[in-house]
Amino acid sequence: MASVLSRYLNPEVLSRVAHRHFEPRGLVMGNLAGAHKSPLHGFAVEFAGHREYVVGDDPKHIDWRLYFTKKKYFIKQYEMETNFVCHLILDISSSMRYGEESQQKLQYAAQMATTLGYSIVLQSDKLSFSTFDEEVRSFISPGNSMTQIVRMTQQLDDMKPVKKTRMAECLTEMTGRMHRREIVVVFSDFFTDLEALEVALQLMCYNRHEVVLFQVMHHDELAFEFDGMIKFMGLEVPEELLAQPEDLRAAYLDAVAKFNLQFEQMCQRNRIERILVDTSRDMSEVFVDYLNQRSLLNRGR
């Protein structure tokens, strides 16, 4: 078991990330007392406003100072604090196999998901985990114990990335399992039909979930720094191409730039966070930069 955990949890990354809080952007719904503001009003924690007294309200919550000003009874309301549920979703389609060892897209994304999951459980929030390719391959229902991390690593160890992706259909299916305002974090290269993907993500947003997309790409895919005659082999289509990279570089980089611009514009239209990750970067730096930026945005709200 320890060897399985070590494949997905790097102690150096954990030492920098595990105790950093991953906070929701807005109000969350939960069923445990936690550290995040809830849209439900109660009589605890932080003052939110007043409402008129109605028969049956506890008189101890009457604001007597306001009564002497308005000559009416008003109840003090407070924002409750609650837990949140975070759904981690990992694309295990064949295109994620590109790269070697720790810089392979799938391995890198799996480690990111496990590290973020560990941090979320450590702050007593709930975590679920799903994998998909042409269909949803695994699902771990929400929980907030470290057993979730063990289950995640077991699922990751059993994954077989040999299929194409049907991302839009799979995300739509998984949205049907979410019943409250929750956070959805997807790890993928997002090599898919962006129009269909946008419809699936709009459904998540319509259901008031916060959506975060980690676009995990290998440095080769971003820079195309190849030399000499190269045989390019498709991971999701059985095609091969023997070519000089110099003949393809300009057109390839232009196509990637256009795709990423279209993807970014789609995310901006729908108020979705998109984080482009190069697997050659140190993972702890990626997380620290992202969490710092997220914390600044939250403080500005």
Please describe what this structure looks like.
The chain is an alpha/beta fold and 301 residues long. It has two domains: 2-26 and 84-299, von Willebrand factor, type A domain (Rossmann fold), CATH 3.40.50.410; 36-82, no CATH class. The protein is 40% helix and 24% strand. Strands 6-5-4-7-8-11 form a six-stranded mixed beta sheet, with helices on both faces. Helix 1 crosses helix 5 and helix 6 runs parallel beside helix 7 (194-206). It is elongated, with a radius of gyration of 23 Å. The chain starts with a helix and ends with a helix. Residues 27-45 have low confidence and may be disordered.
Number of strands: 11
CATH fold title of the largest domain: Rossmann fold
Uncertain runs: 27-45
| CATH-defined architecture of the largest domain | 3-Layer(aba) Sandwich
Written as H for each helix and E for each strand, in order along the chain, the element string is HHEEHEEHEEHHEHEHEEHEH
Describe the secondary-structure layout.
Layout: H1 2-8, H2 11-17, E1 36-42, E2 46-52, H3 64-70, E3 74-82, E4 85-91, H4 105-122, E5 126-132, E6 136-143, H5 147-158, H6 167-175, E7 183-188, H7 194-206, E8 210-217, H8 219-223, E9 230-233, E10 240-243, H9 245-269, E11 273-278, H10 283-299
Parallel strand pairs: 4-5, 4-7, 7-8, 8-11
Antiparallel strand pairs: 1-3, 2-3, 5-6, 9-10
Helix pairs in contact: 1-5, 2-10, 4-5, 6-7
